[in-house]
Design goal:
Blueprint: H1 7-12, E1 19-23, H2 27-35, E2 40-43, H3 47-50, H4 62-75, E3 80-84, H5 87-90, H6 97-106, E4 112-114, H7 121-130, E5 135-140, H8 159-175, E6 179-183, H9 187-196, E7 201-204, E8 212-215, H10 217-220, H11 238-254, H12 269-277
Parallel strand pairs: 1-2, 1-8, 2-3, 3-4, 4-5, 5-6, 6-7, 7-8
Length: about 280
């Protein structure tokens, strides 16, 4: 039985139960997230920060994103896989935005793509959807253009900007987006948007009223320590556990406690004797 989640399944969950979404950038983590039954996996451009050590998500391009998306898709049997369109793929290169979106579907086996809001967002979104590619919208704090928003700050804290967010969400739904990410938006504004839309909202720093939630997996696992946003809940601190394991390994090698006979291979004594007779 095919239990692979489809776009229509995500849309149908609105009002029934909360939707879950996490990021993944490689095979082993995607395998675990999928095994846990998470509804959607985002191959996020946050790979720039948490895996590649870059300062900005604008520094990651199509080659890197497709490389990571392919690895994630190989692991996933259940979740809806969404490729995060990098800055260069549709904001710097609008004329090739449809072509780049198709690459996520055709080359990386993603099920959909995600676009952050920018000045020509509606134009690009419409063109991609017309080609039959499902699109997830993203409004509020949009990291790719955070410099134009005054930095990494909560968006929609005054009436004028809140109204703009509501209008953006409605416009994206009208074009056919199957869901919309609300990032760093006041919870009451997120509630208003969620109630206005027929498609699900996925919150990150947008409160409890959204139809679903997303986090960067490295944040919730404690694998990224450069900074911790207010909206992140760290469920475990794997950095400490991994560091401890590596320190133990180092000490055991130096103290000749590893490897032991248990971790070694043997050769029969008669074969050693034959080797000596061969003159080695």
């Amino acid at each position: 039985m095919d239990d692979k989640i489809k776009v229509k399944d995500i849309v149908s969950l609105k009002g029934k139960r909360k939707i879950t979404m996490l990021t993944a950038y490689d095979y082993p983590l995607a395998l675990l997230i999928d095994k846990a039954g998470v509804d959607m996996i985002l191959v996020g451009d946050s790979v720039a920060n948490v895996v590649l050590g870059l300062e900005s998500t604008t520094q990651v391009g199509m080659n890197e994103m497709l490389h990571h998306a392919k690895a994630v898709s190989r692991a996933v049997k259940h979740a809806l896989v969404i490729g995060d369109m990098p800055y260069e793929a549709y904001q710097l290169d609008i004329k090739n935005s449809v072509k780049n979106a198709k690459r996520f579907i055709e080359e990386a086996n993603c099920d959909a793509v995600k676009l952050e809001w920018f000045d020509r967002c509606l134009e690009v979104t419409e063109a991609i959807i017309k080609e039959g590619i499902p699109v997830m919208g993203h409004i509020g704090l949009t990291p790719q253009t955070a410099d134009k928003l005054g930095g990494f700050k909560v968006q929609g804290k005054d009436a004028e900007t809140a109204k703009r967010l509501i209008e953006q969400a409605e416009a994206l739904e009208k074009l056919g987006c199957f869901s919309i990410v609300l990032e760093c938006v006041p919870d009451k504004i997120a509630k208003m948007i969620t109630e206005k839309l027929k498609v699900p909202t996925i919150g990150i720093g947008a409160g409890i009223f959204c139809d679903g939630q997303v986090l960067v997996t490295h944040d919730l696992l404690g694998l990224f320590e450069r900074f911790k946003p207010k909206f992140v809940k760290r469920y475990i601190n794997l950095s400490e556990l991994i560091l401890k394991a590596i320190q133990e390994y180092k000490a055991e090698v130096i103290e000749e406690k590893f490897p032991t006979q248990e971790h070694s291979f043997t050769i029969k004594e008669e074969e050693l004797k034959k080797l000596g007779e061969l003159g080695s």
